[in-house]
Amino acid sequence: MLYELNLKLGGEAGQGLQALGLLLGRLYARAGCHVFANQDNESRIRGGHNSYQLRVASRPVYTMGEAIDLLVDLDGESRRIHAPELVPGGLVLVDSASGGPREVALPLTEIARAAGGREIHRNSVAAGAVAALTGQDRDTLFPLIDETFAADPAARAINSACARAGYRAALETGKSLPFALPSRPAGRPYLNGHEALSLGCLAAGCKFMAAYPMSPSTLIITYLSGQADAFGLVVEQAEDEVAAINMALGASYAGVRALTATSGGGFALMVEGLSLAGMLELPVVVVIAQRPGPATGLPTRTEQGDLLFAIGAGHGEFPRFVLAPATAAEAFAAAPRAFDLAERFQVPVIILTDQHLAESYLTPEPFDFSRVNVTDYRLKQAASPYHRYDPGPDGVSPLAVPGTVDAVVVDSDEHDARGHIIEDAATRNAMVAKRLARIPAMRAMVSPPLRQGPPEAEDVLLGWGSGWGALCEAGEKLAAAGRPVEVWGLQEVWPLNPEHFAPLSGRRVTVVESNATGQMARLLSGWAAVRVARGINRYDGRPLSAAYIIRHFEGGETA
Amino acid sequence: MTKGFQLTEETAWCPGCGNFAIRQAVAQALGRCELEPNRVVLVSGIGQAAKLPHYINTNIFNGLHGRAVPAATAIKAVNHDLTVLVTTGDGDCYGEGGNHLLHAFRRNPDITILVHDNQVYGLTKGQASPTSEYGFVTKLQSHGVKNEPLNPVALAVAMDASLVARGFAGDIQGLAALIALAVKHRGLSLVDIRQPCVSFNKLNTYAWYRERVYYPEEGTHDPSDRVAAFRLALTWGDRIPLGVIYRRERPVFEEQFAALTEGTLVSRPYPGTALLEKALAAFY
């Protein structure tokens, strides 16, 4: 039996929406459901109107649902703002002793106080009530509450009492949603794209990170900083993005896997350092968590507007990889992949995420760490004298760790095989050729796009990065409506291997992306000879959804 | 005295440049510290000073203009068994890299920053630098520099830098002793090395400096007295003090990471899957 439940929590910044959403997400994940959750936040610390939406389903889901079954109103405004999104028969949980026919009226704050808490504890009352209204087992909820507050016995007691009171009170209303769970399979982790990516960095053996805080990238350094003692990392908040990437490059030179992360504006400051990585041939991984630009743009929202920027960034000519993982599971895999490619080819690797991927929660299959490839490409023994830029297979030079050989010499000036500054034309030409000689082997390493749906369908919906989930859902819905399409999703977006795109020949290709100017469409036209029929573009800062894609695909609208 | 530190014949420096003397002093100082060349990393940015690492046989990270300090900080954090020095100029360190220097003072990595301070941009052919004197005329500043000069020594004392010193390229022996002291000091050392530019600075010449520089007499200055250090740092004009101006033991950046208590970061093994499984378990 298929099931799906869409929940929305509405409230002001500072009212604890995230904590409540996290708790409920984990609850459904533990119950064996697939969950997608997403937040809609304004760029402010307190007040305003924010929402946290959970889609709970019997199969993997990657986008927001289109209508709400249960709305939790924590600010007194949500019922008005979100009323049009409610399905017929949908319910609104309100913090009040009385309410209308569609409302489940529970005095959440009073219940919290009666259970020994304060106003903030009404979130646990609400968690209990939502669990009861959606038919969740108390044996799943109550241990979760206890574990969530395990570090603080007093908080655990209050929140546990509040959750139990909310659960009881909701049952007493006699209201519920027709939502049934299957027999309970193994639970899945509940995490967002950047948490998954951060775990991937740990699995890759990343030991150093420097970054300057910038939404929506900050979660990565925050998470890794929290793991620094356990995993033995050095994590430093840099004074600016310029310092961050130069620190990462210094760390890489000294012999460890190094990371930095930022958003488009911060990456603009890192561009000079990216070029340095290109010249020094130093492995480094740079995460660009995209948000709408130009300039400050919409800081808490999403866009795929930095594709061509990432591919073209940096003065001078040097190779790099650009990856754009599709989901949380793919973000986990992208990190070790990025570190491996960076070290194998001694190039910068950019991982393009976006706010949608970064902050949306998913319930992927548990990660298998034993399958992560961690190959150390640094020399164990080097010839003497060691020359950092001696030509090697595919243009890749021997990479030694300073202190283990006579000298490791790297220079941002053009240099000879020893790494020392030169001016002569012959050496310059040889070094340019050596750096670029890696490109064919790099291109051969790039994975082909993800594909789903009938390969013989005339229509192809093609997207990249975090657009994959919405594209797949759109493809399934279109097929169900009698209009078969094949869906393509690029995850390794640079360099492009034109051979991967041969199956698109003669078909009607619609490129779907979260930007206004069709950057992937232009890239494919220019570099892979793909004939793009048209583009579906979204640039209002909101994530792509199946409904959005279908509406524009069928209606022929282009934006 | 250079103990394995070899200097190249060829350089891109002007004849008579103070960089030759500074390089000699660096080699002497490193030899005196009984270091091996492959255990030393010279980190630099861009400018004539930043070329120094190429002319000595150590590890070299010659990065971007102004960006040597963050790279050096990270190199030291990754392998604190290496000795890390930054060779930089007044434009590189106080202009382009000014923000990094401010925060390096706060972090206090155990590195030595040698600033070849000739009060002019050499490699770009003679423009004013952050330490050029008010009124200093150049091709670009044809009506004279309109900004007051930066006082790097006073800035470093104000920032509570762990060791602050001024050297003079006209005194190789004194400079070598100062650099050796700075290298041995645990914490960030800033050595502002006054150095005439024979090509573009006709004002602050060897003769100009020789008339003014002096080492405070033994026992007349206590570098641990910050107020006295600040007073000495402000002394400029007819008399220019050399030597250690300020010194304070402070917690070192790389000593404060739990990851580095048992050894260097570069020598740490892969974490292993049990630890990863534990991290993942927190998401259930």
Q: What is the structure about, briefly put?
A:
The complex is a heterodimer of chains A (559) and B (284). Chain A has 559 residues and is an alpha/beta fold.
Topology:
The complex is a heterodimer of chains A (559) and B (284).
Chain A: E1 4-13, H1 17-30, E2 34-40, E3 47-57, E4 68-73, H2 78-82, E5 86-95, E6 103-106, H3 108-114, H4 122-133, H5 138-148, H6 153-173, E7 191-192, H7 193-203, E8 206-211, H8 218-231, E9 234-237, H9 241-254, E10 257-262, H10 264-280, E11 284-290, H11 307-312, E12 321-323, H12 328-345, E13 348-354, H13 355-359, E14 361-362, E15 409-411, H14 425-436, H15 439-445, E16 450-452, E17 459-464, H16 468-480, E18 485-490, E19 492-494, E20 508-513, H17 519-528, E21 532-537, H18 546-555
Parallel strand pairs in A: 1-4, 4-5, 5-6, 8-9, 8-10, 10-11, 11-13, 12-13, 17-18, 17-20, 20-21
Antiparallel strand pairs in A: 1-3, 2-3, 2-14, 7-14, 12-19, 16-18
Helix pairs in contact in A: 1-4, 1-5, 3-4, 4-6, 5-6, 7-8, 7-12, 9-10, 16-18
Chain B: H1 18-32, E1 40-44, E2 59-62, H2 68-78, E3 83-89, H3 90-96, H4 98-107, E4 112-117, H5 152-158, E5 163-168, H6 172-184, E6 189-194, H7 206-210, E7 213-214, H8 226-233, E8 240-241, E9 243-247, H9 273-281
Parallel strand pairs in B: 1-2, 1-3, 3-4, 4-6, 5-6, 7-8
Antiparallel strand pairs in B: 5-9
Structure overview:
The complex is a heterodimer of chains A (559) and B (284). Chain A is an alpha/beta fold. Chain A has four domains: 4-173, 3-Layer(aba) Sandwich (Pyruvate-ferredoxin Oxidoreductase, domain 3); 192-371, Rossmann fold, CATH 3.40.50.970; 393-443, no CATH class; 450-555, Rossmann fold. Chain A has helices at 17-30, 78-82, 108-114, 122-133, 138-148, 153-173, 193-203, 218-231, 241-254, 264-280, 307-312, 328-345, 355-359, 425-436, 439-445, 468-480, 519-528, 546-555; strands spanning 4-13, 34-40, 47-57, 68-73, 86-95, 103-106, 191-192, 206-211, 234-237, 257-262, 284-290, 321-323, 348-354, 361-362, 409-411, 450-452, 459-464, 485-490, 492-494, 508-513, 532-537. In chain A, the strands form three sheets. An eight-stranded mixed sheet of chain A has the order 6-5-4-1-3-2-14-7. Chain A has a seven-stranded mixed sheet with strand order 9-8-10-11-13-12-19, with helices on both faces. Chain A has a five-stranded mixed sheet with strand order 16-18-17-20-21, sandwiched between helices. In chain A, α1 runs parallel beside α4 (122-133), α1 crosses α5 (138-148) and α16 (468-480) crosses α18. By secondary structure, chain B is of the alpha/beta class. Chain B has a single domain (18-259), classed as Rossmann fold (3-Layer(aba) Sandwich), CATH 3.40.50.970. Chain B is 30% helix and 15% strand. Chain B contains nine helices and nine strands. The chains are: A alpha/beta (559), B alpha/beta (284). At the A-B interface, α1, α7, β8, α8 and α9 of A face β2, α2, α4 and α9 of B.
